[in-house]
Design goal:
Blueprint (H helix, E strand, L loop, with lengths): L1 H8 L13 H14 L2 H6 L3 H4 L4 H7 L1 H4 L9 E9 L3 E11 L1 H15 L7 H12 L6 E13 L2 E4 L3 H26 L3 H14 L4 H23 L3 E11 L9 E10 L7 E9 L5 E10 L12 E7 L12 E10 L1
Antiparallel strand pairs: 1-2, 2-3, 3-4, 5-6, 6-9, 7-8, 7-10
Helix pairs in contact: 1-7, 9-10, 10-11
InterPro entries: TPR_rpt (IPR019734)
Keywords: Signal, TPR repeat
């Protein structure tokens, strides 16, 4: 909603070009059309590049919501104070007296908190009524200075409105939104590589999206860990893995199965984290349960250095689905960090 109010506070964003006999008249003609809501004249006053962004009807549609707040700027005035122009284009500096948007925004925010405006289904109408009543004796004003770029084309002077850049920005933002949606879906499916790629492409299109940046950073951490796993996993050699039954000599009612063997670090990296995934399988070797075993952790202060051997002795009874159902196990490196 405040963005719609800013529309009036910053006529620089709504400049237009017109076939006019001078740069000054082109800018003043556009500003007069802005204050009065003459969208046809605004559009005619835009440069050819800006008019190429939207048709007149598209431009009018975009201004429908803002038009209901036109009363805020109808009494605004402007005057040219300087220009720096050659035969093809340049800049015109204008002093504009119009709504003090700092005051309007403060009043609006206060009203929104006091009345719970965000819960109002007719937010725009409520805001309009509030502003009309609040400023029935006049809108608080301030004077600002703006520079407007002008170009000479089509037999007259026109104002560069920035519509072309605005359209390109909106297209980038929409593309970024679509890519972020693909990234979220990929992440939910566990495809970290695809999620990472989509998020990075999304941020290229719209680097300022803080929510996407946050999600991208989270996925980037997982992606880095995944890449480390793929790269270093071949250097971790599992040797002599087997299940052995151990009798505790009366301390347990029956012998319990243990997974035993060795894991050898044959690479050159010192691991600060190493986690195994043990999968329980039935007689048909279908997975029916699993457990993670953290062999090395940064909290243990015992890194797994190159050449070191980890002696594995894992009691499989605990966390098993049931003693009767599982028969076989699968073992793999679930995660690592160095």
């Amino acid at each position: 909603m405040t963005r719609k109010l800013l529309f009036f506070a910053l006529p620089l964003l709504l400049t237009a070009c017109s076939n006019s006999s001078s740069p000054e008249k082109a800018v003043q003609g556009y500003l007069k059309a802005t204050f009065s809501g003459d969208l046809d004249t605004q559009y005619q006053l835009a440069s050819a590049e800006d008019r190429a962004a939207w048709t007149l009807e598209e431009y009018k549609t975009r201004q429908q919501d803002a038009d209901q707040f036109r009363f805020l700027v109808k009494d605004s005035t402007s005057k040219v104070i300087s220009k720096d122009v050659d035969e093809s284009g340049g800049w015109v500096t204008v002093e504009t007296t119009g709504p003090d948007m700092t005051t309007l925004a403060r009043d609006f925010i206060g009203m929104a908190f006091a009345t719970g405006l965000s819960q109002d289904k007719n937010t725009e109408e409520t805001l309009k009524k509030f502003l009309q009543e609040k400023y029935k004796n006049g809108v608080p004003k301030t004077t600002t200075t703006q520079e407007y770029e002008v170009v000479k084309e089509e037999g007259g002077w026109h104002v560069r409105t920035g519509w072309a850049e605005q359209k390109a920005k909106e297209e980038r933002e929409q593309k970024a939104k679509n890519l972020a949606a693909l990234a979220k879906t990929a992440a939910e499916k566990g495809d970290i590589e695809a999620a990472h790629t989509y998020y990075q492409e999304s941020l290229k299109q719209n680097p300022g999206d803080s929510m996407v940046k946050y999600e991208a950073e989270r996925v980037a951490e997982k992606y880095q860990a995944h890449q480390q796993l793929l790269t270093y996993k071949p250097y971790l050699k599992m040797e002599g893995l087997k299940i052995e039954m151990e009798d505790y000599g009366g301390f347990a009612p029956e012998a319990e199965p243990h997974l035993r063997g060795k894991i050898r670090n044959t690479g050159t990296e010192t691991l600060t984290d190493l986690t195994l995934l043990i999968t329980y399988r039935d007689k048909n070797k279908q997975a029916i349960g699993e457990k993670e075993r953290h062999l090395v952790s940064s909290y243990m202060d015992r890194p797994f250095k190159p050449g070191f051997i980890y002696d594995l002795d894992e009691n499989l009874k605990y966390d098993a689905p049931s003693e009767a159902d599982w028969r076989y196990t699968g073992v793999e490196i679930a995660s690592l960090k160095y």
